[in-house]
Amino acid sequence: MAMFDRLRGLFGQSTVDGSDDAGGAMMSCEEALRLVHEFLDGELEDSSADEVQQHFHMCQRCYPHLKLETAFREAVRRAASGQSAPLELRDRVTALLEEARMEG
Amino acid sequence: MSSENSWRTSSRDAGTSRSARGFEEEALPHLDAIYRFALRLSRSPDLAEDLVQDTFLRAYTSWDQYATGTAAKSWLFTICRNVFLRKRERTRRHDEIVEANVRHAGPGSSPVNPVWSSVMGVDPEGEFFDSLVDDRIVQAIEELPEEYRTAVVLSDIEGLPYTEIAHLMEVPVGTVKSRLFRGRRQLQKVLYDYALEQGYVPARIGTGG
To answer: Chain A residues with CB inside 8 Å of B26's CB?
Structure first.
């Protein structure tokens, strides 16, 4: 029974808290989770982004999901964004363009 | 090809040939990004170098048709991908069939990510992602079907907006969202399974394997 109360605290309480702050119903968990990618991609309008942000800020159940998606993106970016073109390739491309300019 | 041409403006001065210097100034700063994209597409440094050279040569020859001030980087990505797809068409092999199967068995569209459920109680914030070595992540990206891979690379690594990715891939924005959704989910699943295998994340208690 204690476990159930604890879960209810984690899952449900935040919605009640959130609605007070917002002056209206807080975005549902389902809606916030549905929009999490667009939110992180910066594709939401300011008002929707604020609502999503507020939900994740208030909802203890959803917050870890946001953190996980953020950790995932950071890992992907870290792994794949550092590679530069080899210098020889840069030289070859420059030479190729030079050649094309002479011809045309 | 139509997507390459669609980066043109209608208001450009016909017949005005811009200088090669202008091309180099606008296009060459994107060489690293195009190389990375070419690497992810071709999965091979040698093929990627060829792809980059073909891309820049092709871009140079159609430079007159490119509208200054529009997204030069996206225009180059478009050309790069088109060159890649055309080459692939000529050398279609077994791996594409595998890709098709993977795509068929792709993740569902439930808002609840299975990885979220798997890490609940053991690593809910996904800290295991920090432990993964770069090579393993890159490998997982390269295992994605091309449509997912391109969308994920352009969004998560190169930071392009959905509209530009849609334009580049010649699909509606909704399709980009769905490819990103599925691509990311598949990627997370592969990385989670690997992390589990390596012990970067403990198995969930009571799941019975």
So the answer is: none
Restricting to A residues 57-96, those with a Cβ less than 8 Å away from any Cβ of B are 64-65, 67-69, 71-86, 89-90, 92-94, 96
Least confident range from A4-18, A30-44, B78-92, B179-193: namely: A4-18
Identify which of B53, B112, B127 has the shortest CB distance to residue A92: B53
Phi-psi bin for A13: left (phi > 0), alpha (psi -120 to 50), beta?
alpha
- Cα–Cα distances in Å, from B68 out to A100, B25, B57, B73? 20, 11, 18, 11
ipTM given for this complex? 0.82
Record: contact B126-A80, CB cut-off 8 A: no
Is 70 exceeded by the pLDDT of residue A9? no
Q: Could you tell me if A8 lies within 8 Å of chain B, comparing CB atoms?
A: no
pLDDT, chain B, mean: 84
Low-confidence ranges of chain B (pLDDT < 70): 1-21, 67-70, 93-109, 205-209
Domains of chain B: 2-90 (1.10.1740.10), 112-198 (1.10.10.10)
For residue A4 the two structure tokens come to: 């159930």
Distances in whole angstroms, Cα of residue B98 to Cα of each of B35, B135, B145 = 25, 22, 9
A7 touches chain B (CB under 8 A): no
Q: How far apart are CA B160 and CA B154, in angstroms?
A: 6
Q: What is the pTM of this model?
A: 0.81
